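Box S1 | Example of a co-folding query
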Amino acid sequence: MQAPALPAPERGIDQRPVGVFDSGMGGLTVLHECLVTMPHEDFVYLGDAARLPYGPRPLPEIRRFAREIARFLAAEEVKLILVACNAATSAALPDLQEELAVPVVGVITPEAHAAVQATRNRRIGLLATQATVAAGRYERLVRTLDAGARLVAVACPRLVPLIESADPFGEETAVAVREYAAPLMEAGVDTVVLGCTHYPLIRPIFQRVFGRGVTLVFSAEETAREVAATLSRKGIENAEAREGRYRFLTTGDPEQFRVMGARFLQLPIAEVERVAIARLEEAAA
Ligand code: DGL
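Box S1 (continued) | Returned holo structure for D-glutamic acid
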């Protein structure tokens, strides 16, 4: 005789927001996807503009920043933390997952997976910050998924400051992209991971430089899907019928964040609140 089916688990409504952070505007590419994938959820986004860029910093320092922000968000009663920054994911994801009670989702695994799926010649390029390249997390993940695939990584220190500047789409950015793309084109890669959440903001420049034969991979959509799946699996989703709210915090200049942020988020940004670094440090103390 067949065993009776177990009753479906009780599914409550969890009204807590999802916490998202990055060093600056880059995480807005991921937040954008989250807002359209989960319009019924609330989000709180923190951009650590006062300490941007993270990329040139040593991994232990980025880990310390990530711990401060994640603990600050946890104290704000978020139900999940999304590390919308490849450098912070590289430096801190396992530590955050160990230390925090709420689920923590990062941005690197979905991209490594998508790149291995997309490549036909098994030559994958990676463009990222120095910290992400130095951490070697992409290499390890790609090798785990396909030991025969080759990853060629190039650190791009000029891109994040250019993307956060007053002229992100200018000639200087195009020149830098051409320079960073050259070794990957020479290596004959057919797939390139944009391994920094800032880079999709200038995606058209990348696509023109690499041409149509190269697949660009970035994680915003996959990551948003992973957040949605995690909320669903754990039974901590908000009510489907509502329209969620989202709010912004920055350690930098709120007005600058509001103006630039709306351009990148492609959704209105009403108000941005400033958070002092000292408050973040206190949260981790
Ligand atoms: N957007 C971040 C990343 O994905 C960090 C960029 C930076 O601050 O250098 O790596």
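The CA atoms of residues 109 and 166 lie 32 Å apart. The pocket of D-glutamic acid is lined by residues 22-23, 26, 52-55, 85-87, 129, 132, 160, 196-198 (CB under 6 Å).
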